[in-house]
Amino acid sequence: MMMARKQDVRIPTYNISVVGLSGTEKEKGQCGIGKSCLCNRFVRPSADEFHLDHTSVLSTSDFGGRVVNNDHFLYWGEVSRSLEDCVECKMHVVEQTEFIDDQTFQPHRSTALQPYIKRAAATKLASAEKLMYFCTDQLGLEQDFEQKQMPDGKLLIDGFLLGIDVSRGMNRNFDDQLKFVSNLYNQLAKTKKPIVVVLTKCDEGVERYIRDAHTFALSKKNLQVVETSARSNVNVDLAFSTLVQLIDKSRGKTKIIPYFEALKQQSQQIATAKDKYEWLVSRIVKNHNENWLSVSRKMQASPEYQDYVYLEGTQKAKKLFLQHIHRLKHEHIERRRKLYLAALPLAFEALIPNLDEIDHLSCIKAKKLLETKPEFLKWFVVLEETPWDATSHIDNIENERIPFDLMDTVPAEQLYEAHLEKLRNERKRAEMRRAFKENLETSPFITPGKPWEEARSFIMNEDFYQWLEESVYLDIYGKHQKQIIDKAKEEFQELLLEYSELFYELELDAKPSKEKMGVIQDVLGEEQRFKALQKLQAERDALILKHIHFVYHPTKETCPSCPACVDAKIEHLISSRFIRPSDRNQKNSLSDPNIDRINLVILGKDGLARELANEIRALCTNDDKYVIDGKMYELSLRPIEGNVRLPVNSFQTPTFQPHGCLCLYNSKESLSYVVESIEKSRESTLGRRDNHLVHLPLTLILVNKRGDTSGETLHSLIQQGQQIASKLQCVFLDPASAGIGYGRNINEKQISQVLKGLLDSKRNLNLVSSTASIKDLADVDLRIVMCLMCGDPFSADDILFPVLQSQTCKSSHCGSNNSVLLELPIGLHKKRIELSLLSYHSSFSIRKSRLVHGYIVFYSAKRKASLAMLRAFLCEVQDIIPIQLVALTDGAIDVLDNDLSREQLTEGEEIAQEIDGKFTSIPCSQPQHKLEIFHPFFKDVVDKKNIIEATHMYDNAAEACSTTEEVFNSPRAGSPLCNSNLQDSEEDIEPTSYTLFREDTSLPSLSKDHSKLSMELEGNDGLSFIMSNFESKLNNKVPPPVKPKPPVHFEITKGDLSYLDQGHRDGQRKSVSSSTWLPPDGFDPSDYAEPMDAVVKPRNEEENIYSVPHDSTQGKIITIRNINKAQSNGSGNGSDSEMDTSSLERGRKVSIVSKPVLYRTRCSRLGRFASYRTSFTVGSDDELGPIRKKEEDQASQGYKGDSAVIPYETDEDPRRRNILRSLRRNTKKPKPKPRPSITKATWESNYFGVPLTTVVTPEKPIPVFIERCIEYIEATGLSTEGIYRVSGNKSEMESLQRQFDQDHNLDLAEKDFTVNTVAGAMKSFFSELPDPLVPYNMQIDLVEAHKINDREQKLHALKEVLKRFPKENHEVFKYVISHLNKVSHNNKVNLMTSENLSICFWPTLMRPDFSTMDALTATRTYQTIIELFIQQCPFFFHNRPISEPPGATPSSPSALASTLPFLTSTPVTSQPSPPQSPPPTPQSPMQPLLPSQLQAEHTL
Predict the structure, then answer these.
(1) Helix ranges, 89-173 (H)
(2) pLDDT for res 705
(3) For residues 770 and 956, what is the distance between their CA atoms, to the nearest angstrom?
(4) For residue 1377, what pLDDT is reported?
(5) Other C-beta atoms lying within 10 Å of the C-beta of residue 1004
(6) How many CB atoms lie within 10 A of CB 1053?
(7) Helices 303-312 and 314-351, packing angle to 10 deg
(8) For residues 131 and 149, is the Cβ–Cβ distance under 8 A?
């Protein structure tokens, strides 16, 4: 019942009549009181629908129309409003007025003839079909407006609004109005209807009128008074709502707001709406060319636009829009003006940059001058209409030229004046700069390196301070200092070259001692060029060290004249002169496959080599390509961690020829391993034709020290590494090198530098070629070296032109880039001459190691350094080798005028006379000399050829028999390439290097020329003693057996020189220990105490080996053994010291007879610094000084345990003893180190490093940590390039595990760990498990299953083994392999195929014992098994069918079997076996191919 009542409630409707003063103009004045405006604002409040003009003077036709309908009242229509109590109501509004005839100006006659006062008080209104009124324009045009009739044609009035105009009405008296209102009120009061007094036009109201109106209201029973303004829309709604509440007594009393307070609220509302509208316009309108029509359409639906138009109307909205457009246009013009004014100075600089042209011109004249310039139209545009900002040019954005009428403005004139002033100031500053520079150049107080603070007072004056800023004269001074410093450095470098003899006499190495550095400074100290760098001592010392490096390691790159090194120029000349076969091959697409390939050996024990190889592979592309200087190279890595004598660890294989080697160490043991392996590798190839391993570029690297248990310090490791690098003549990198971080062994920049060095060495391999054998001499009669000085003021092209343009000049067959072949008539026969064209520094490196029949040495007569280098070079040349000196001059006039040239020519002639050499001078102004000038020299060479070759051959053969020092004590070659690396005897000497000499049948037949040489040697009585002693040496080098054996006999004649060819081929000194001399009837290994006794002499159990430098060897490595157990003095076990001493004594006896004489001993002008040769001992002060006393104290306490030092002779140099102690190698095999843990290094964990069963449950078979890591990687890292291959940051990995150890709910995404960090931490989890995820006993079964040849049977066998895994291991292994399978599916993005992933993961999952060599040989089997699990993951774990392999490549198992079918017949016993906790070392597949001796050794 209650619901029905609520639904029946209807909206209340009230009929309100608005009344007030009306009538003719005489009665109401010229305008009405505002009744119509009040009704208009209430019924239609929108500003656009509000009309101020509502006239009451109508024509008869308008009065009779349907709107007025012959009535004196207007129906304004129906309005719905919500009052203060939120109850909606409807109101019909009627206005009672009086219409005036526009003809008679009297009220129109209507049906009701009553006066206005009575008519206005009517409560019942009726007018049939009367239409709603809008505005005056509606009259007569009713069809154009909405036609809405007054309801039912009649209304019952519920209340009245009595209007009083409080403004100053024209021709109206307010008192008369008040009387009219009073009478009207009296009439209205009779109706008993509510009345509300409305004060209209309060916006123009008079204070007195308002007071009188309020007084009137008070006098009439407290009438409600509402102050309104229809124009301002203030309190209009309040007036009507107040009357409604009086009509309906149930409604509350309305609060009447004073006019000014209501006006304030309305103004605030309008201001807010205006602000929002202006914001809307500024957001939409960006261009000043927008129009109102299009913009208003865009804003039509915006509430900001609607609110403002409702309150203020469309016209005001349009006005604000136009104001915004005007502002945009003004801003646009100002921006253009600023751009033009900014470009104007640039136009002045381009068109009138010359001050002399405009110095006295006004802006008007300058404007005319501008028009005459050729590029005027490039900068300016002349407009037909002006000014420019009032034309369409402002919108021509593409035309950035300056409107020329802009020059007439004041800012343009100011800019022109500023341009003039700028030019004048620049002229003055330029004058000051020139004066300042002149002061610097002429002042004797400005020396290289002098700070500005010291030089300021000598050169500055007031004008400089006034016109030059501090930065300007500091810049000028800095440039001047750079010029004089560069000049001083060049002069100092020339000074160092002038003292070349000193540097070569000091026998400097990579780290010269303080004593030698002191000698250099003492000798050079009085030179003015030395003193010139007094204030730059550090740079001067750096130049000295750089020069020492050049002397010690001379290459094109270290040459002071680089890139204008003579060697580079000669290579270019020869390559342009000849097209070598190798060059032709390069044009063929099927040329040398190694031309863009780099083969790199990485040597290091305990996993160092493998780790670095992985780091380098991570920097390569997916196909193992490496980019160097923008070119792609194929990089092949061969990590070696075991015995290099075994074929599996050999430096070179039939398919792998190394170009360089990185040697890694992090302890004394690993350093000893490196040295030992290098020695073994060099020994194994000394007797071979391809013994390039001796010259193999090496780089020694100290990598991060992990798990230091021996107390070694970084300083000692660096010190020992530097010593070894010095002896091995290789580059040394230590942890202080820039860029090596804690988690990396070597950074990408250093890898690139190493590879660049290998490329250079590969290109320069023929520059310092191996010594030619006697057999090779069959093709060449003479070998001549022509030496030129780098940096000489003459062109190598001019000097070598006669040689290269000779008709007999041909390309060298040996492929060298620095040699040519000449065929010249010498005497009665033509001789083939190999002419090597080299710089002096390259000639130093071959001076001793190569067979050279003569030298042609050039020097510049006007350069001291040129002759100095010649003297240094000749000092170490044997006096039997002919020398041709050639002085290069500028001509006869220059010699006469230049004192230096005359002195140099005279000295050259004197040197030639004293050494019995040839001398000639060639004027380089006429360089077209002929080869005939060298014919006397060539004839001398031919005469001495036999003795030169015999001496060279004997020198190499005698050194091959010496194990302790050089027989001849020959002069130092001056290059790292001249070292002789003599090895010690080891128990793992490569058997394939044995040479078995039999009496008649084993020696190869000799060539004709070879035999001829042998005959010549036999005919030389002076060499008979040499040969006999050499045979004696050979017979005394048989290793002593443990038990007596039949004596060994050798019958080697002087003509049988094959072993000499073996000994000195490629310039190497061969030691006997590298070739085992065996009896012709063979031997039985069982006759010896140990298998290796058959090839080397026996050793006792405790034996320490040292590789040390020796004074007499000058760069050689001597092996010394310390036998802790006392040895018997029986004939069967002679000591090393006895044997070496006897050999040494015999060598010294030989040298007394045949020791060659050097040119330094025959010429007084050579060797002026010879006194410094023997004044220094081995080592350097920097290496030995800090530890000398400590080592001597230790030595005085005796020799105990493993740290015992070899007992030296009493007169042994203590510094040498220190080096021996620091380089001692322990032959005992070190125990395998525990795997490092990144987590347990600093805290104890209950999660990491514990058994797998403790971190899983039946409900959660996957460790939470592994699950979190894999979820994170699969969500964010599947596209990460090199994932699992690129290692993460070690400290971040530790932090991740530490945080997870504390909170197992750790969110990896929130912590922002990198993908590589998470991947590395996950791998570390498996590495730290006490047992590998793949159990050791299962590994045996996996390997057995992998041996099956049939692929499908193999996979099913592997699956059966997998089912036998412990449950915990199986679930985790399945989870991990499934993840890796998903990673491999993204290999196109992350570059990680299943093969790459298996390489990264198999050591972590299977963890074999890498301390055994066989385990390393079986790594491919383990890796292939894991690869199969990843590839066939759906088959193994998800019961899917076997999938086909992704392309049969030799690296995949199936492809390997198909491409190598003969492997399928390999016996099962040759397959590798897995380890067993720790597993037994798998048998290497190479073992059946090894000799029995090595197999016996391998089993020990």
Answers:
(1) 116-120
(2) 57
(3) 13
(4) 95
(5) 10
(6) 11
(7) 120
(8) yes
Nearest to 694 by CA among 271, 1121, 1068: 1068
Q: Please state, in angstroms and rounded to a whole number, the distance separating the CA atoms of residues 1264 and 563.
A: 61
Tokens of 1131: 């004939």
CB neighbour burial string for 92-104, b if at least 16 within 10 angstroms, e if fewer: bbbbbbbbbbeee
Q: Are 480 and 438 in contact (CB under 8 A)?
A: no
Q: Which helix H or strand E contains 348, and what residues bound it?
A: helix 314-351
Residue with tokens 């996950």: 1322
> How buried is 709 (Cβ within 10 angstroms: 0-12 exposed, 13-18 middle, 19+ buried)?
exposed
Task: Label residue 45 exposed, middle or buried (CB < 10 Å: 0-12, 13-18, 19+).
Answer: middle
Query: Tokens 């109401």 map to which residue?
Result: 28
Instruction: Give CA–CA dist 202/41, Å, rounded.
Output: 15
- Chain centre distance of CA 421: 48
Report the half-sphere exposure of 100 (CA within 13 A, side-chain side).
Answer: 19
- What whole-number distance in Å separates Cα of residue 1451 and Cα of residue 1427? 11
Q: Classify burial at 649, counting beta carbons within 10 Å of its beta carbon; exposed 0-12, middle 13-18, buried 19 or more.
A: buried
Distance between CA atoms of 358 and 363, rounded to whole angstroms? 9
Nearest to 1285 by CA among 771, 620, 618, 787: 618
Give the residue among 240, 229, 224 at the shortest CA–CA distance from 92. Answer: 240
Q: Name residues of the chain where pLDDT drops below 50.
A: 1-8, 580-595, 707-710, 736-743, 766-778, 960-1154, 1177-1242, 1448-1500
User: Minimal CA–CA distance to 58: which of 14, 104, 26, 15?
Assistant: 104
Those residues with Cβ within 8 angstroms of residue 249's Cβ, 6 or more apart along the chain or in another chain: none
Minimal CA–CA distance to 1482: which of 1495, 1472, 1491? 1472
**DSSP bridge pairs for 786:** 837, 856
pTM more than 0.85: no
* Residue 66: both structure tokens together: 């349907």
The answer to whether the CB of 13 falls within 8 A of the CB of 90 is yes
Cα–Cα distance, 587 to 1457 (Å, whole number): 36
Location of structure tokens 């860029």 = 739
Two tokens, residue 1232: 């395998």
Give me 1496's structure tokens: 């016996």
- Dmax (CA) for the chain in angstroms is 173
DSSP result, 656-724: B--SEEEEEESSHHHHHHHHHHHHHHHHHHTTSTT-GGGG--EEEEE----S--S---HHHHHHHHHHH
Q: Is residue 288 within a helix (H) or strand (E), and if so which, with residue range?
A: none
Q: Which residue has the tokens 């007054």?
A: 150
Q: Which one-letter amino acid corresponds to residue 637?
A: L
Q: What is the 3-state secondary structure (H, E, C) of 904-953?
A: HHHHHHHHHHHCCCEEEEEECCCCCCCHHHHHHHHHHHHHCHHHHHHHHH
C-alpha torsion angle, residues 1443, 1449, 1451, 1452 (rounded to 10): 20
Identify the residue whose tokens are 């499934």: 1378
Q: Which residue has the tokens 């039985």?
A: 1084
Strand partners, 380: 402
- CA angle 1109/1114/1117 to nearest 5° reads 35
What are the helix and strand counts (H, E) for the chain? 57, 28
